Amino acid sequence: MSSEEFEKLHEIYKSLYDELKLIPERVTKCHGEERKRLVRSFDERQGEAEEVLQGMEDELRTAPPSYRNAMSTKLRLYRRDIGKLQRDMKSFAPGFGSASLTAQGDHQGIYASQNQQSTHLQSQRALLLQGTEYLNNATQSIERSQRIAVETEQIGTDIIEELGGQREQLDRTRDRLVNTGENLSRSRKVLRAMSRRLMTNKLLLAIIILMELAILGAVIYLKFFRK
């Protein structure tokens, strides 16, 4: 037993209450057999609502403490609403209660109709419980899908941020490569200039050596061979 079962009974009660609250006003607009039929219908629905409320009371005794106050408040409100409908029904149909019970006791054929209606109600109740279960399952499935969507969105955001960081790293690497290429170009120009200067220096050195040799040869010639 759990608060979930209490909610299922709550849905059944609301369905019964929606039927009950329409009957007192309809009783004022009809007469004869139609009024009797509405009185019997009210009596039947009221009995079913009382059974549902009793089931809710049973659930209340075993419910977790955290849910008990809210469930107890709902139950008191529901019993108050049923009491108000009973008073309205008595004011609109003074014979309500004893007359309906007498009519049910006098006419045995009514019991077969009541049994059929009870069976139909139980079938509707089972369908309602099944529909409620399907709705709960669908809600849980939607919640799981929402969680997966949020997680997927977070993963996508993280990937985008990571790709943005990698793009910045690639941009910085490209800038460094561009700077390195420019530095290499300047270095090649400097090396070519140094190479030209070295060749020029070598050429000047060779000319100076040749001139010195020529001067030395002239000095030797003038000193030793020319008389």
Automatic annotation (TrEMBL):
Superkingdom assignment: Eukaryota
Where is this protein primarily located?
A: membrane
The T-SNARE coiled-coil homology domain extends over 132-194
The record ties this protein, via Pfam families, to: V-SNARE (PF05008), V-SNARE_C (PF12352)
Please verify whether the record's keywords include Protein transport.
yes
Q: Which InterPro entries match?
A: SNARE (IPR010989), T_SNARE_dom (IPR000727), v-SNARE_N_sf (IPR038407), Vesicle_trsprt_v-SNARE_N (IPR007705)
GO cellular component annotations of the record:
cytosol; endoplasmic reticulum membrane; ER to Golgi transport vesicle membrane; Golgi apparatus; late endosome membrane; SNARE complex
Q: Where do transmembrane segments lie in this chain? A: 203-224
Membrane topology value: Single-pass type IV membrane protein
Recall the GO molecular function terms of this protein's record: SNAP receptor activity; SNARE binding
Q: Which UniProt keywords apply?
A: Coiled coil, Membrane, Protein transport, Transmembrane, Transmembrane helix, Transport
A GO biological process of this protein is:
Golgi to vacuole transport
Supply the SUPFAM superfamilies for this chain.
Answer: SNARE fusion complex (SSF58038), t-snare proteins (SSF47661)
Similarity comment: family membership:
Belongs to the VTI1 family.
Q: What is this protein called?
A: Vesicle transport through interaction with t-SNAREs 1B
Q: Which organism is it from?
A: Oryzias melastigma (Marine medaka)
Q: What is the lineage of its organism?
A: Eukaryota, Metazoa, Chordata, Craniata, Vertebrata
